[in-house]
Write a structure and sequence with these properties.
Tetracycline Repressor, domain 2, HTH_TetR, about 0% strand, HTH-type_TetR-like_transc_reg, mainly alpha, about 230 residues, TetR/AcrR family transcriptional regulator, Homeodomain-like_sf
C-alpha cells in the first residue's frame, strides 16, 4: 500500500483576485507550494545547484512571497524537511494504530513490521521526498544534519515505546539502551539512503525489499540477551 506524502496545500488553485480568499489562506497556499517546490527542485537538480529562482518558478510565486515566508533556500529546505518528517512519523503512527482498530489482538512483531512497511511506503510514494531528504540533505550543511539527527531520535523514541510494550507481552524482549535503539534506526536510515541513491532519476525507489533486513535489525536489538 503506497501513500503519497505531499507538502502541497489542500487548496491548490487560488481564484482570480487576492480578495477572493482570506490572506491567511493565500499565505498558506504560497507556503505549501514553496515547500513542495524546493523539495522537487532539490531532488531534480541537487541541493547545491538549486536556486531561489528555480524554486519560485516551480511554485509560481513571486520572489517577495518567497522571502515573506523564508529567510533563504536553506530555511525553506529545512522547513520542508521538518514538515515531511512529521508527515512520515504520522503515517507510521496511523498505520500501526489502524491495527488496533481491527478488534483483533496484534502482537509486537506485527506492529513492528507494519511500522517498517509504512516508513518505506512513504519513500516509494514520494520519490522527490526520498531523494531530497535522504540523499541531498547531506549537502545542505550542519543545520540540516543536526535537524536530521533530531528526526532520527524521534523515530528512535517510537521504537523504544514499542520495546516497552513488547516487553510486557513477551518475556524474551527487554528494553535496549538508548544508543542501541538509535543505532537500529540509523541502520534503517542508511539502508534506505543507499537504495534511494542507487535509483535512476525519476524512478520509484525500490525500498520495499528492505522490509526484511530492517525488521531483522530491530528484532535483534529488542531480543538481544542480557
Amino acid at each position: 500500500m503506497s501513500t503519497v506524502l505531499t507538502l502541497m496545500p489542500a487548496r491548490l488553485g487560488l481564484p482570480r483576485g487576492r480578495a477572493a480568499l482570506p490572506e491567511t489562506e493565500v499565505a498558506a497556499s504560497q507556503r505549501g507550494r514553496i515547500l513542495q517546490a524546493v523539495t522537487e527542485e532539490v531532488a531534480a537538480r541537487g541541493y547545491a545547484a538549486t536556486s531561489v529562482q528555480h524554486v519560485i518558478g516551480r511554485a509560481r510565486v513571486s520572489r517577495t512571497a518567497f522571502y515573506t515566508h523564508f529567510d533563504d533556500k536553506q530555511d525553506a529546505f529545512a522547513q520542508a524537511h521538518l514538515e515531511a518528517s512529521r508527515q512520515l512519523l504520522d503515517l507510521i503512527h496511523d498505520r500501526v494504530a489502524d491495527l488496533g482498530r481491527s478488534g483483533n489482538e496484534v502482537g509486537w512483531r506485527t506492529r513492528l513490521r507494519t511500522g517498517v512497511e509504512a516508513y518505506l511506503d512513504g519513500f516509494e510514494g514520494a520519490p522527490a521526498y526520498a531523494v531530497s531528504f535522504m540523499v541531498e540533505l547531506r549537502a545542505a550543511g550542519p543545520l540540516l544534519l543536526d535537524q536530521r539527527d533530531r528526526v532520527l531520535e524521534q523515530h528512535a523514541r517510537t521504537l523504544a515505546r514499542l520495546a516497552e510494550e513488547a516487553a510486557t507481552e513477551d518475556p524474551a524482549v527487554s528494553q535496549p539502551p538508548d544508543l542501541e535503539v538509535i543505532g537500529a534506526i540509523g541502520a534503517a536510515d542508511e539502508l534506505a539512503t543507499r537504495a534511494i541513491r542507487a535509483t535512476t532519476s525519476g524512478d520509484v525507489p525500490a525500498v520495499r525489499a528492505l522490509v526484511e533486513p530492517i525488521v531483522a535489525i530491530h528484532e535483534a536489538v529488542l531480543l538481544r540477551s542480557r
